[in-house]
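Design a sequence for this backbone.
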């Protein structure tokens, strides 16, 4: 199959590696890294689309998205969205999410993901990549958004291993409650997309969200942090989630404040 990946950053490239290993032809659309290739060229004869564009850019990007591409099987690999309604007119839409740093995937280290539809399993599963099937599309989406936010808090509290462990325990409990309160399945938080990704992101200094929390603890402003790290998905997700009544989300928002 011909698969076009929208976004050729670290994770988009890692997914491309998996697809190539599975004998698919991969094309990329990324106006920053490949300005010579437009969307029409990148999606010519594509059988499916994988979206790996940063969540902050997705709503604007989809405003003029071609109708012919909306009809193709589309897998969202971006984490940070809390509302799937922008994909309502995508008849073959699904999500894949879970713990997996791009560099480790490129180095052939194993990873496990959670997918909302069997199509993603057929494309990406192999000896390196394991994939769980969970039809709770909203729950998978919310886990990917919340874990980035919680990772900011983990970085902030990360000067103590004991504090970090307790923080992750409480964050996981709050994640389960958030899912249940918002019409998703709380058990989805027990899967790779939930507790797996939460632990990985909240304990690894390679995570930009975790690093954001560390910088906040060091007294850096949000503007300084964005200038340094460029893309911090948790900062943008924090502006979109429902924070009222969720102690950890409210605490992190108080640390971060409003982000444009």
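Sequence:
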């Amino acid at each position: 199959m011909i698969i076009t990946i929208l976004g050729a950053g670290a994770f988009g490239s890692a997914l491309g590696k998996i697809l190539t290993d599975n004998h698919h032809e991969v094309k990329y659309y990324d106006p920053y890294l490949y300005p010579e290739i437009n969307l029409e060229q990148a999606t010519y004869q594509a059988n499916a689309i994988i979206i790996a564009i940063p969540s902050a850019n997705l709503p604007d990007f989809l405003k003029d998205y071609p109708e012919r591409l909306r009809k193709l099987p589309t897998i969202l690999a971006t984490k940070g969205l809390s509302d799937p309604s922008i994909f309502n007119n995508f008849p073959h839409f699904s999500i894949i999410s879970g713990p997996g740093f791009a560099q480790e995937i490129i180095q052939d280290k194993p990873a496990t993901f959670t997918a909302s539809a069997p199509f993603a399993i057929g494309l990406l599963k192999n000896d390196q990549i394991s994939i769980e099937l969970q039809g709770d599309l909203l729950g998978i989406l919310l886990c990917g958004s919340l874990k980035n936010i919680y990772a900011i808090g983990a970085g902030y509290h990360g000067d103590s291993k004991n504090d970090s462990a307790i923080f992750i325990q409480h964050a996981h409990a709050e994640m389960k409650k958030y899912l249940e309160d918002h019409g998703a399945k709380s058990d989805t938080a027990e899967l790779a997309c939930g507790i797996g990704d939460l632990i990985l992101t909240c304990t690894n200094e390679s995570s930009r969200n975790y690093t954001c929390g560390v910088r906040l603890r060091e007294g850096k402003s949000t503007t300084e942090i964005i200038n340094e790290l460029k893309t911090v998905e948790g900062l943008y997700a924090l502006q979109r989630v429902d924070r009222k009544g969720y102690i950890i989300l409210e605490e992190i928002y108080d640390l971060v404040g409003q982000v444009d």
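The radius of gyration is 18 Å.
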